[in-house]
Write a structure and sequence with these properties.
Layout (H helix, E strand, L loop, with lengths): L1 H22 L3 E2 L5 E3 L2 E5 L16 E5 L2 E10 L12 E7 L5 E8 L4 E10 L2 E8 L12 E6 L1 H4 L3 E4 L2 E4 L20 E4 L1 E4 L8 E5 L4 E5 L9 E6 L9 E7 L10 E3 L12 E6 L8 E7 L5 E8 L1 E6 L2 E7 L7 E7 L2 E2 L3 E3 L9 H10 L5 E4 L2 E4 L8 E2 L4 E2 L5 E2 L29 E2 H17 L7 E4 L4 E4 L7 H20 L5 E3 L3 H4 L13 E2 L8 E2 L2 E2 L6 E3 L4 H18 L4 H17 L20 H15 L4 H9 L1 H6 L1 H10 L6 H22 L16 H17 L7 H10 L42 E3 L3 E3 L8 H4 L3 H18 L4
């Protein structure tokens, strides 16, 4: 009898195990994610940034029904962390002892807090369990909790249930806030053991149940506009093993499949060029083998023009790809692509399809970014005159939160904190923030000069009055917009040279609160010089007691000296007709800065923590030498030096090849022969690289999306084509422009706001708090959330790594767009 009971219990136990296995839908992959159809749980494949800390792409993340809805699942020291709040250091990720379990080890070293987070497939979801190495010290009690952040735009206008108590996710943050003067957000709801987000929406519904620690939900946008909805449980005093245990149940629609993405150039195509759309396919989608091109008629009809069999392009990241080639269609008109029962938005085939793809970048975006000016566009005021109190000397041995570094020497005649006269002129604010980055400003000048010289930028839609500090967009003044922009950048670079005798790292806000300013750049500072003798709110004789003046980081670095030497040499060519005095001054400064760096070994970056090889002093020396060679029409001094720099050119041809081939007309025949094998080698490397994805361009896999890399690639390859047409064709350049204007992963929007039929209209610019855009700005675009999720958020502007416009990226786009336009005039 005893044996029969034991056998019966064993049989029941096996049945229970079988049921558990059957119900368990998530499984660990070789990449150590947990996956099932319609759901991915990404476990610390993406770490918090060592520079920018909380980028909303770290910790435990949830991709539900094709959308990344949750991020930053981790132990945090704040209820609603801001960008630079403390973040844990990732130590390791391993498979756990239980089936389908991933274990992450992390630590806050300064707080002596180390712990493991175990993520385990469980039932129809997963379990999160936190084990501390030791109980919390008294100093951390009530401060340490486990957070999981949910994307606000995925939940706007939806409801939640804390246990059974209902709540609403607001479109705009409305509190509640602590009344103790701290400014801390209070929870929207708290004290429950179960929280269901969006019970009414099967695509975003998630239920979290906590074993012991009560749940709370916060609207972190009450603290900062880029905050998410934070679900949090505090770690109890004395807790160690299983200090936090959550059971997370994302609702997964049975047999859910992502619909195909048909991507193409949103600006359209010229009649004679190659035309290939890319179709991105969920591996579980039953994909038709054919697509159809339809022509839209005046009465709203759709006329079938071409049916074609798709060409498989293989698997890349988590999707399959296929190509639809409609190059044979050359008749001008308005077209769309029909596939799998859906029809895309329209696009043109026309001889002038690319006639207006770069102008908004020049006449609106760059104008809006102009520093020290007031910018108006008809009824709209973009900015009052900005940063007229520039600048104060930054202190020695200081690392700024935005990556600027000041060494032990100021390399400046001014004392720390002292006002530096002469810097409140020219320049562009770099990006969605309000700093002047010297090497980026130099790049803008060079890009515009090259675009004028190689392709022409004959365009006048903007008035610029430097003396009055006034800019009016959509008001022509008879002067080329490109020339006015080159002038504006030159004024800032010359101001640095005249003040210090060298380039500086840049000019940036001194405090985090000021840096986080959103809106009119003219209101970021009071425009009055700081006088420490005055009280904080006192104003007197053009000065104030408010220390809001931006800091100048003045370290003298060869990379920056050579960057502005090249920019000033090029600007002297562009300004020689309109402003010969300024052109002569720029050329004189360029020669002096260049000569200063030609003795000894040139090494080093540009003084920011994110400096990389393209900004190196060696590369900058090649570019500066080429610019002076062109400006001097082949002066032997620069020709001789360029030949001496051939070893650098060989080593870094990927970065300096475009500049190197521009020098060919001013060098002897042997120089071209020296470059030929480098061009062949680069083409071979490019061909072996771009074949790894379906789009024919280098795609960044780093922590910042890669539009800038793509447009720079497009320009470089066209310059190589011009110099070596027998070796390099135009397809690389056209692939690059196709990519940024819509033919890319995740969706088919143009990454240049307002360019093309459909474009990204929520960007990370000065107006991002309004969920708006800046016309003509190029966004970084598609990011690969590791290990394999391509993402382009369309409704949430605050992910800078996908959405942040920058001036140098946009000027690089202008140059690449003009190169692509030139490529379309050549016979295929």
């Amino acid at each position: 009898m005893k044996r029969s009971i034991i056998a019966l219990l064993a049989s029941a136990s096996m049945l229970n195990c079988a049921c558990a296995v059957q119900a368990q839908t998530l499984a660990v992959t070789p990449a150590q994610t947990l996956e099932t159809q319609g759901l991915s749980v990404i476990v610390d494949q993406n770490q918090f940034s060592p520079i920018f800390f909380d980028e909303k792409n770290a910790g435990i993340q949830i991709v539900l029904h094709g959308d990344r809805i949750a991020t930053d699942g981790a132990i945090r020291l704040d209820k609603t962390p801001e960008q630079w709040a403390p973040v844990p250091a990732f130590i390791s990720r391993t498979l756990g002892s239980e089936p389908n379990q991933v274990v992450v080890r992390s630590a806050y070293k300064a707080q002596n807090l180390a712990y493991n987070v175990k993520v385990t497939a469980e039932g129809e979801g997963f379990r999160i369990a936190v084990d501390l190495d030791q109980p919390l010290p008294a100093s951390l009690a009530g401060k340490v909790g486990f957070n999981l952040d949910f994307l606000p735009s995925a939940y706007f206008g939806k409801t939640y249930l804390m246990d059974t108590a209902p709540g609403l996710f607001p479109r705009h943050p409305t509190g509640p806030m602590a009344k103790d003067g701290s400014g801390d957000p209070l929870p929207m709801a708290s004290g429950g053991k179960s929280l269901t987000l969006a019970p009414e929406d099967p695509l975003t519904r998630v239920t979290i149940t906590s074993d012991k620690a009560p749940l709370a939900i916060y609207d972190a946008r009450n603290r900062a506009q880029n905050g998410w909805f934070v679900v949090r449980s505090l770690v109890a005093a004395g807790a160690r093993e299983n200090a936090i245990v959550w059971h997370v149940r994302p609702n997964v629609e049975k047999n859910w499949v992502r619909q195909p993405v048909v991507s193409f150039n949103q600006a359209g195509y010229t009649p004679d060029r190659r035309k290939v759309a890319m179709i991105e396919l969920d591996p579980n989608f039953n994909a038709p083998k054919e697509a159809e091109l339809v022509k839209l008629t005046a009465d709203g009809g759709k006329q079938s023009v071409l049916r074609g069999t798709l060409t498989p392009r293989g698997r890349w990241t988590r999707y399959n790809y296929a190509a639809f080639d409609f190059s044979s269609v050359r008749e001008p008109g308005v077209y769309a692509i029909s596939y799998a029962g859906a029809t895309t938005n329209p696009f043109r085939i026309a001889a002038d399809a690319y006639g207006h793809i770069w102008q908004a970048s020049l006449d609106t975006f760059l104008a809006e970014q102009m520093d020290h000016m007031g910018i108006r566009e008809q009824y709209r005021v973009w900015s009052a005159p900005s940063h007229l109190d520039d600048a104060r000397q930054a202190p020695a041995n200081h690392v700024h939160f935005d990556g600027y570094k000041m060494g032990p020497n100021l390399d400046s005649p001014f004392k720390a904190g002292e006002h530096i006269p002469g810097l409140a002129v020219g320049g562009w604010q770099d990006a969605g923030d309000y700093d002047i980055q010297t090497p980026e400003n130099a790049s803008v000048i060079r890009d515009l000069v090259w675009a004028r010289e190689l392709f022409g930028l004959d365009w006048d839609e903007t008035s610029v009055d430097e003396a009055a500090r006034a800019v009016e967009i959509r008001k022509p003044d008879g002067v080329e917009d490109a020339v006015q922009q080159i002038t504006h950048g030159t004024l800032q670079l010359l101001a640095q040279y005249k003040t210090f005798g060298h380039a500086i790292v840049g000019i940036v806000d001194p405090t985090l609160r000021q840096y986080a300013h959103l809106g009119d750049s003219g209101s970021q500072t009071d425009g009055l010089l700081y006088d420490p003798a005055l009280k904080p709110d006192e104003r007197k004789d053009g000065a104030s007691g408010k220390p809001d003046d931006r800091w100048a980081f003045t370290t003298d670095l060869p990379a920056n000296d050579l960057s502005i030497a090249g920019a000033l040499a090029s600007s002297s060519r562009a300004l020689s007709a309109s402003n010969p005095a300024l052109a002569a001054e720029a050329l004189s400064a360029a020669k002096a800065l260049w000569a200063k760096q030609q003795n000894g070994t040139i090494k080093g970056g540009d003084g920011r923590d994110d400096s990389t090889s393209p900004r190196s002093a060696e590369n900058a020396n090649v570019v500066a030498t080429v610019e002076l060679l062109i400006t001097s029409k082949g002066d032997r001094t620069y020709a001789t030096r360029l030949r001496q720099l051939l070893p650098v050119i060989r080593q870094h041809f990927e970065w300096v090849g475009g500049a190197a081939v521009r020098a060919i007309p001013f060098m002897d025949a042997d120089y071209r022969q020296q470059l030929a094998p480098l061009v062949r080698a680069m083409k071979a490397k490019v061909d072996s690289t771009v074949v790894n994805n379906p789009f024919g361009v280098p795609i960044s896999e780093g922590s910042w999306a890669g539009s800038n890399q793509v447009v720079s690639f497009g320009t470089t390859m066209y310059l190589l084509h011009q110099a070596f047409p027998e070796l390099v064709g135009t397809e690389y350049t056209l692939n690059a422009i196709d990519y940024v204007l819509g033919r890319h992963p995740a969706n088919n929007l143009s990454f240049v706001s307002t360019v093309g039929t459909a474009s990204k209209l929520i960007g990370y610019g000065h107006n991002r708090a309004d969920y708006s855009f800046i016309p003509g700005g190029l966004e970084p675009g598609m990011l690969i959330v590791k290990p394999d999720f391509p993402e382009v958020k369309t409704d949430w502007p605050f992910l800078w790594f996908e959405n942040e416009y920058t001036v140098s990226t946009t000027s690089a786009y202008i140059l690449a767009a003009r190169a692509a336009m030139a490529a379309t005039t050549e016979k295929p």
